Amino acid sequence: MPEVAPAVQEIVVVEEVVVTDAAVVDAAATVEAVADEPVVDESVVDEPVGNEVVEGPALAEDSVDAAVVARAEAANDRVAAVEAADAPVAALSLVGLVKRFGSTIAVDGVDLEVHRGGFYGIVGPNGAGKTTTLSMITGLLRPDAGEIRVNGLDVWADPVAAKRSIGVLPDKLRLFDRLTGRQLLHYSGSLRGLDGRAVRERADELAEAFGLQDALGRLVSDYSAGMTKKVALAASMIHSPRLLVLDEPFEAVDPVSADTVTEILQRYVSAGGTVVLSSHSMDMIERVCDGVAIIVHGRVLASGTVDEVREGSTLEDRFIELAGGHKAVRGMEWLLSSLD
Description:
Strand order of the largest sheet: 6-7-8-3-9-10
Radius of gyration: 21 Å
């Protein structure tokens, strides 16, 4: 027994690191932590990139370590305890969130509350602090000040339980793209404590929903940008999270696929899930979201329902007004004079 204890402790640490989401964990930071995991066959990981169909070996159901499953169950118990409380709990609550990078204040006292079953959009110009805010919400970036609660659980005080109920799609995808699509989904589900049968069933259903059935046997590195986005979104949903945090989910996705993804997300919300996403598509935000926040220079300048924020105008016009877009192009008459 004394020889077994260190191994168990090491596995617990691994789960602590990767519990955020397999689809978003920095591969460079975790390659050593997962190198000894018996989840993926090395012969598949070292397979050269090509267009041929690659069918990797099936992952055994007992490859999920009992310690990982035990921690997942304990986290679920804490989530259930919070949800059983009589007081209504917001799906996401941000209070006084601050993040600095040197002398630059990227997020400056952000306060937001998203109710359960909401479809909430965050918009803002480039460099406004949207991605930084979403990274802190999901536990990928530690805030300098403020509080983040997901379904009543403090993301930094109880990270395992809080992250257990979160699905994440980051702006800059970091995937284990030397795996096939099926292996990536199996790996993501296994890290979340799902048994092999549940992972296989959910992977097949997600692949059908996202139109990836014919691509599951191919390496993710061979996927197009849109297919990569869809398999990453599928990986973020495989454990049935209560909150989906999506950073630019429709970037590089064609209109047909975007419509499919939107329909899936709307069904997810109608079933009680909550979606928080950032996007530059004002039309899409107006069409699908019931709440929105406009962030400029790290501050929330307007938030509430879509109708409240746009104030009788379009969301795009309201956004441009708050972001100072019209002022930025004034005084450039010299540009037109160059045509004479």
